[in-house]
C-alpha cells in the first residue's frame, strides 16, 4: 500500500515533487519499486542480512556513565558511529543500492557534503558492482580530503562542483542535472530525508532501523527515553531516531547548525531562521534572501552546511511534535571534546552539535530524566578541522605546553 | 488564454513555424535586455522567453548557469528583470522563465499580477510539474498569463495528453534527456518526442533544449511547430565585449535561424 508506507509526500504543506518533468516518471518508478520491495520478504531478508553481516547492525546503545555523571541526567548513546563506514548513512545507501539493482539500473549518483554519504554510496556501489559518481562541492573536497580519498579507493568518481557556494547545495544541484541526463540508466541515491517525493519518506523508512533497534534496546534496559536528541542537517539520522518515538510522549529535539551565531547570518539554521521555500524538489524551510535567492549556509560541520531541511522536520517543527534548537560552531567543538573526554568516543562534528545541545539542556531537566542521543557518526574525518580550531599541531610535535 | 496563445496559435493555423528566443534577464544589464528583446523581434523571433536569474538553476547547463550567476553578481533582481519588458511589450509576446522558488517567495498571485502589470504575457516554470502546478495555474489564469508546460522524452503518451490539456501558449517539448545547452547533433529524442506530441495535441509543439544551430532548428521544424533557442543565444551575449556587440551578434544569429526555419524543405 503506497499510501501507508510512503504517504503522498505531503507533510502539512511541506514536501511535494518540484522537479523538471523529465524526472517525474523516474520518481514514480522509485516510489513504486520501493513500495513493492518493502512488501517482498526476499528483499527485506536480503537487506536485513546485509545490515547485520556487512554493516554490523544492530549498533550498540551505550550507557554513557561518565557523561551522565557530568550532566546529571541518564544519557544513552545510540552508536551509529559503529556502523561500517562510520556513520548512519550506510543504512540508506545499502537499501537504495539494493533497490537500484532490483530496478535494473547499473549506475548510481550521489551528492555529499561531509563525504560520509559519498563514502557510504561508494561502498554500496562497490559491493553491488554499480558504477558510482559522487558530486561534492569544491570547498568540501578541500576540507574533507580523507573522505575523497576513501571514495576514490572504493572505485567511485568524485566530481568537484565549482558552482555557487561550492558546498552541499551545489553538489545536489549538479547531481540533479546529471540525473536529468542519465535517468534511464541511473538511480540517484539522495543521502538525506530531503528532495522530491518519495525520497524523504523512503530515506526515513531506511533510517527507521535506528529507532526500531533503540526502542527495543532501551526497553531491555528497563526504560523508554524521556528525551531523544539528534543533529539535523537534512535530518536523516534525526528522523531515523525520532520515527519510533513519535507519539510516545518522548520530547524530540533536533539540533541545527548555529554556525557563527544566528545574528551573524552565517549558519545552517533553516528551521529556526528560514522561511518556506522550494529547493531540490521539496517545499520546506529554507534560508533565502528577500528575493527568494537561496543563501549559502555555514557550519564548521560540512554535513550540516545546507540551507534547507527535510520537509517532515519542517512539519514536525510547525506542529510542535519536535523542537529544534541551534548550536554554534564553538559550542559544537565543546560538545566534541566533552564526548571525547568523558566517554572516549570521538564523534563527528555533526553529532557534536547534539552533544552540545544536550549539555545546554541538561540543567533544565529533572535528575531522573533519560536521554537518548544519536551518535550519527564517528569523527575521524573531522580531526584536521578540530586540530586547526584548537591550535593542535598534527605534525607530531604538539603545542609547547604539552611538554 | 493570453497573447502568446493567440500569436503562436495563429502561426500554426497559417502553417508557419514559430521561433521563441530565450534571453537571460539583466545580462549584461537591464537596458541592454530591452534592446535585445527589440533586436530579436526585428530579426524574426515570434516571442521571447525571458529568464529571471535564480541561484540554483537545476535545469540549466553551463552557459545559462554562467549567465545567471553573472547577472546575480551584478545585482539583478526579479523586479529589475520585469522592468526590462514594458518599453517593448507591444513588439512581441514576452514570457518569463524562472524556477518555482522565486515565484513562490513573492506569492503565486502577487508574482502573476506583477508580471502581467509589467507587460509580460506568459510563464515557464520548469520545476513545477503538473503535480505541483495548480496554485500557479490558477493565479496565472486570473492574471491573464499563459503558462507553458513541458513534456520530456520520458513522459508517457497519456501524461503528454494531460499536460497538453493544461498548457497554454505552446507545449514545450524538451528535446533531450539533459539540461539546457547546445549539442553537436540534434538528438533523435527531439524529433521523436515532437512527432509523438504533435499527434496528441492541437496546441503548437515547440522543441527546446539541445537546439542550437540554424540547421538543427530547420530539422526540428520538419516535425514540430517551432523551436526555442536559448544557450546558443546567451553564449553570444556572454562572449560579446560590449552591449552593442551583444545586440549585433544575437540579431545576426536569430536572422540565420529564422531563415533556415522558413526555407522550404
Which key terms come to mind for this protein?
heterodimer, A: 403 residues, alpha/beta, Rossmann fold, 2 domains, six-stranded mixed sheet, four-stranded parallel sheet, 17 helices, 14 strands, B: 265 residues, TIM Barrel, nine-stranded parallel sheet, 14% strand
| CATH architectural name of chain B | Alpha-Beta Barrel
| Helix coverage percent of chain A | 40-55%
The main sheet of chain B orders its strands as 5-4-3-2-1-9-8-7-6
Quickly give the structural class of chain A.
alpha/beta
Helix tally of chain A equals: 17
Superfamily (CATH H level) name of chain B:
Aldolase class I
Fraction of helical residues of chain B = 40-55%
Task: Pick out the low-confidence regions of chain B.
Answer: none
Which two protein chains have the largest interface (Cβ within 8 Å of the partner's Cβ), and how many residues from each? A-B, 37 and 44 residues
Distance between the termini of chain B: 32 Å
The radius of gyration of chain B is 17 Å
Describe this protein's structure.
The complex is a heterodimer of chains A (403) and B (265). Chain A has 2 domains: 10-53 and 89-203, Rossmann fold; 56-86 and 209-402, Rossmann fold (3-Layer(aba) Sandwich), CATH 3.40.50. Chain A contains 17 helices and 14 strands. In chain A, a hairpin with a 2-residue loop joins strand 11 (275-279) and strand 12. Chain A is an alpha/beta fold. The model of chain B has no long low-confidence stretch (mean pLDDT 97). Chain B has a single domain, classed as TIM Barrel, CATH 3.20.20.70. In chain B, helix 3 (62-73) crosses helix 11. In chain B, 50% of the residues lie in helices and 14% in strands. Chain B is an alpha/beta fold. In chain B, helix 8 (157-166) links the parallel strand 6 (149-151) and strand 7. Chain B has 12 helices and 9 strands. Classes of the chains: A alpha/beta (403), B alpha/beta (265). Chains A and B meet through helix 2, helix 9 and strand 11 of A and helix 3, helix 5, helix 7 and strand 6 of B.
